[in-house]
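User: I'm putting together a small comparison set for a docking exercise, and I want a reference complex before I start. The sequence is below, and the ligand is fe (iii) ion. Could you produce the 3D structure with the ligand included, as structure tokens?
Assistant: Of course. I'll restate your input first, then give the structure tokens for the complex.
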Amino acid sequence: MPLSTATSKLLDGASTLNGRLADLHQHLLQVLPDVDRIACALYNANDDTLKTFINSTRTGEAIEGYEYKLSDSGSLSDLARTGEFRVLDNIASAVHASNMHSKWLLKQGYQSSFTVPIYDQGSLLGFVFFDSMQAFAFTPTVQRDLVLYCSLISMSISNEMGAVRTMVESIRIARELTMMRDFETGKHLERMAQYSRLIAKYVAPRLHLSDEVVEHVYMFAPLHDIGKIGIPDYILLKPGKLTQDEQKIMDSHVELGVKLIERISGSGGATRLPDSSILMNIVKSHHEALDGSGYPQGLKGADVPIEARIVMVADIFDALTAERPYKSIWSTADALTELQSLAAAGKVDALCVEALVSNLDQILTIQHKYSDTVA
Ligand code: C2E
Ligand code: SIN
Ligand code: SIN
Ligand code: FE
Ligand code: FE
């Protein structure tokens, strides 16, 4: 396939990176039929982790939710440092069977692999893994071709990450202007991200959500209440119960948020934001109850997108277990009981609640790490 076709596949095709990678893979198979799998793992320098992000597999199952520390893999650390590629002509004889992931590759029947580190302006973005059912599939010619595709994949990822970062950054700046007055501190935002990711990871295999969706929920959850920027202090910070009129104004934070996101994503000019629908759905629908009693639209059941259900449960859990000017702190146990009754009443997603209930240890870790009271 001409590279220009590949370029347009990755930059303009399907609306998600996963979809675009699958398109690219489809075309690649016509030229290089032995490349059975392409996967990308993204690197997060803050905690030194690599996470599977996008995946395209011709046969067998894609590995999802895979995460490990870069420093735990000596060979990948070497590649990251030197920028060199790695060819394994015969996986069975080359890898240590102790490595979980190697075991998975072998079980899927992959015989050879080609690994390429990718960079964005000099810092490690992650790795692209190509795997083949054939041993010795990655000849020097194939390697040369694939390296070209890697630069496309890396451009496409940086493009998307850059767009997301720009968006998150402009929202952060907008928020900082109002930060001092707001009880919703950085800690609350971080907890929202962490709880939402925990829930997303739990429901992902059951609902077939991709890693890409999980990571976007993680990135976008803290922005759910962005519209509160437009709510006056006397309401937002009121120590007691809101009057009906005040409540009405408060509820408008959802529509205000929607307008804000529309303005930011529309004004970026060239800023293309794939998967901005995930952000929009979170902002728009995080107060929609599954029984139709929520606001602003009164959506019901399947019309409430999963990303909004996830954030709704994370939001309620954090609102209950943290301090608000209008309420005191609930215990974790009481908050979970409350969520379970909301699930039983058909208001919030039961699976999302189950995600919290069955991961108490992780909840406690998050609460401890991002506590409002610990300076
Ligand atoms: P928030 O503080 O982030 O609360 C988010 C959501 O957590 C609430 O959405 C509600 O679904 C849940 N929640 C909070 N407290 C309780 C509780 O005691 N019991 C139960 N079952 N759920 C609770 P909601 O109700 O749509 O409120 C949206 C926002 O409106 C709140 O965000 C908060 O900023 C404001 N708000 C709500 N009620 C009051 C109030 O009585 N006084 C003041 N000053 N603000 C309020
Ligand atoms: C690894 O080498 O650890 C990962 C290989 C892959 O995902 O294909
Ligand atoms: C944000 O701007 O990051 C969230 C806004 C808020 O929680 O008030
Ligand atoms: Fe809200
Ligand atoms: Fe909230």
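The chain is about 55% helix and 10% strand. The longest strand covers residues 123-132.
User: Thanks, that's exactly what I needed.
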